[in-house]
Specification:
The chain is an alpha/beta fold and 252 residues long. The chain has two domains: 44-109; 120-249, 3-Layer(aba) Sandwich (Rossmann fold), CATH 3.40.50. Helices cover 41% and strands 18% of the residues. The chain has helices at 2-14, 20-29, 44-48, 61-73, 86-95, 131-143, 159-163, 166-171, 185-190, 213-220, 235-249; strands at residues 32-34, 39-41, 54-55, 79-82, 98-101, 106-109, 120-125, 147-151, 174-179, 197-201, 227-229. It has a five-stranded parallel β-sheet with strand order 8-7-9-10-11. Strands 3-4-6-5 form a four-stranded mixed β-sheet, with helices on both faces. Strands 1-2 form a two-stranded antiparallel sheet. The longest helix is centred in the last third of the chain and has 15 residues, at 235-249.
């Protein structure tokens, strides 16, 4: 939306309806909106192609409502709220239209389904317990305009489950591999596909898993080429990065 406004502003300069000096002033006056408790980055979409995302954890429902409402007032759609607890989602949903997924704790204000990239992002998990993190990645990617295919519970303890979906994996533009325990899924997937693999370690596992640290270190030490790693339980970061790769990659 901000990119469209900038283009309209430049067109007015081209058509002689606005002087260059006036255009510069307008751009200077709208880099962010100060709400007191938050400064909304209104130029984020112009710089990065994706609007600012609201991190719900630690914010009150009233603050989230204020930020989302201000973004909506600027024409914002598909406003993404991550780590939004169920209690806050209920309050926010009473004030503004909200689509909420309790598993991933993702909230979306003004959801608009639109595919803007030609490739597919595959999201695979080692086990069912990894699904909340995987859904955070999958929904983030979908909101950002990507087609997403989910392959859940295909961990290395039953490798035949993963291999039965090899055609889906090899057709993907990007694969997000989400796993806890020893985090071996990312290496296996990395050795099977010819596309980037984004590994997401989860905090799922027994004591020596150290809340995801063992999976993180395993993924960082992957012997498969083309595997990158985000932080523990960071499904959002994986979905965001996968979307950027998919929009750059084009057709496979």
């Amino acid at each position: 939306m901000e990119q469209q406004k900038a283009l309209e502003l430049l067109q007015k300069v081209k058509d002689g309806e606005l002087s260059p000096e006036e255009a510069v002033l307008k751009l200077k006056m709208s880099p962010f909106e100060d709400l007191g408790y938050a400064k909304i980055d209104l130029h984020r979409e112009l710089r990065q192609g994706i609007p600012e995302v609201i991190f719900g954890s630690g914010k009150t429902p009233e603050q989230i409502i204020g930020i989302a409402s201000a973004m909506q007032a600027r024409g914002g759609e598909n406003i993404l709220i991550t780590r939004l607890c169920t209690e806050s989602a209920k309050i926010v949903g009473e004030q503004i239209p909200l689509t909420y997924d309790p598993m991933s704790k993702i909230g979306i204000v003004g959801r608009k389904s639109e595919i803007t990239a030609s490739g597919t992002i595959a999201v695979a998990t080692g086990g069912t317990s990894d699904m909340p993190v995987a859904e955070e990645a999958a929904l983030t990617a979908e909101v950002l305009g990507n087609k997403v295919v989910r392959l859940y519970d295909v961990g290395v303890a039953g490798l035949h489950r993963l291999l039965s979906k090899l055609d889906v994996l090899m057709d993907a533009q990007v694969v997000i591999a989400v796993a806890g325990m020893e985090g071996a899924l990312a290496s296996v997937v990395g050795g099977l596909v010819d596309c980037p693999v984004i590994a997401v370690p989860t905090s799922i596992g027994y004591g020596s898993n150290f809340n995801g640290l063992s999976a993180l270190l395993s993924m960082l030490n992957s012997c498969a080429s083309g595997v990158s790693v985000v932080n523990i339980d960071n499904g959002f970061g994986a979905g965001y990065l996968a979307s950027m790769i998919n929009h750059i990659g084009g057709n496979r």
